[in-house]
């Protein structure tokens, strides 16, 4: 309960036009996390905000939350999966950061705070901007507030992969910490969703392991509590995201990971099979299939990724033919 109070005090929730106008009149720099109701605010940013608040103090640095669907002024930000942070000073927009990129977010906060201090001290002019990037070219995928995919396919050249932070890591409170490390390792989190898997979903997801002795234990574990489902990509020109994510996770068995790859996520957060903290797709083919299964309403424009029909599919009811190549772990 204490941590929830801290978070509430750290970020003011702007839910009305009146509160928005009040926020614009705040002295100093205000960083607004614009979020969608279906996915919630950007949790990995909270620890960064807490750190910066302790370092620079609360007088000139403010943090706020604003749901795009609640405020008409944010109507152009509706239906976007990528986290968006708007920076306001003196009632003017001075910067925008898209994506949960902790280093970039920190640099922008410190740079804009320093610029605002200079304006307040010397009376100079602020460098107000317009957010010209409000176009379909920003995202790899798009989803409306009701959980359905937008009618138009959003353009992107990036490839994506599925990452799951498993129930064992979530129950020990490690999800946010793992997401920060994912970002620091150069991955972009396009969307993050906390969800408790159904037995039907997991039996289909791990159907290739149905004959193994550990199958039932694996299914029970994956349904034992909430997981964090992430869609990851990497910047253009970087290593293939599927391979990079598998390397960052490390060997499946946490004991082997600690011996062979001690800096990997499974070495740091896994305990023993199947509690190895994170899941990653085996290859590009598996990534496409797993994304289609767990995010059936998303539509990707990457040519390697299947175009999923814009229809509502209940979790656990999606039927796929048995595939010997599916190797989720």
Automatic annotation (TrEMBL):
GO terms for molecular function: nucleoside diphosphate kinase activity. Residues 303-313 have a biased composition (Polar residues). Signal peptide: none annotated. It comes from the Eukaryota. Residues 158-302 form the Nucleoside diphosphate kinase-like domain. CDD domains: NDPk_TX, TRX_NDPK. Residues 302-329 are annotated as: Disordered. It holds the Pfam family NDK. Gene3D superfamilies: Glutaredoxin, Nucleoside diphosphate kinase-like domain. GO terms for biological process: CTP biosynthetic process; GTP biosynthetic process; UTP biosynthetic process. Belongs to the NDK family. PANTHER family: NME/NM23 FAMILY MEMBER 8, THIOREDOXIN DOMAIN-CONTAINING PROTEIN 6. This is NME/NM23 family member 9. It comes from Oryctolagus cuniculus (Rabbit). The lineage of its organism: Eukaryota, Metazoa, Chordata, Craniata, Vertebrata.
């Amino acid at each position: 309960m204490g941590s929830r109070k801290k978070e509430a005090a750290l970020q003011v929730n702007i839910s009305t036009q009146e509160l928005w106008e009040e926020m614009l009149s705040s002295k100093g720099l205000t960083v607004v996390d614009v979020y969608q109701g279906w996915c919630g605010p950007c949790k990995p940013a909270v620890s960064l905000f807490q750190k910066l608040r302790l370092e620079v103090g609360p007088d000139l640095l403010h943090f706020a939350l604003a749901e795009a669907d609640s405020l008409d002024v944010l109507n152009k930000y509706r239906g976007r999966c990528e986290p968006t942070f708007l920076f306001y000073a003196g009632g003017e927009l001075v910067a925008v950061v898209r994506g949960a990129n902790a280093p970039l977010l920190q640099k922008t906060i410190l740079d804009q705070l320093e610029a605002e201090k200079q304006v307040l001290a010397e009376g100079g002019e602020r460098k107000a901007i317009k957010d010209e990037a409000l176009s379909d070219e920003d995202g790899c995928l798009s989803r409306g507030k009701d959980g359905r995919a937008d009618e138009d396919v959003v353009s992107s050249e990036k490839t994506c992969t599925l990452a799951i932070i498993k129930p064992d890591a979530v129950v020990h409170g490690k999800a946010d910490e793992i997401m920060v490390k994912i970002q620091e390792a150069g991955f972009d989190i396009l969307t993050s969703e906390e969800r408790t898997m159904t037995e039907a979903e997991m039996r289909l997801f791990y159907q290739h392991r149905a004959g193994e002795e550990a199958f039932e234990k694996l299914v029970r574990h994956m349904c034992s509590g909430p997981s964090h489902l992430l869609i990851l990509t990497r910047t253009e020109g970087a290593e293939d995201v599927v391979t990079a994510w598998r390397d960052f996770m490390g060997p499946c068995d946490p004991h082997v990971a600690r011996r062979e790859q001690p800096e990997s996520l499974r070495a740091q957060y896994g305990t023993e099979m199947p509690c190895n903290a994170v899941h990653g797709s085996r290859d590009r083919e598996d990534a496409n299939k797993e994304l289609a299964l767990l995010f059936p309403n998303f539509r990707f424009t990457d040519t390697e990724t299947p175009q999923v029909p814009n229809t509502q599919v209940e979790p656990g009811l999606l039927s796929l033919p048995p595939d010997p190549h599916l190797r989720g772990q």
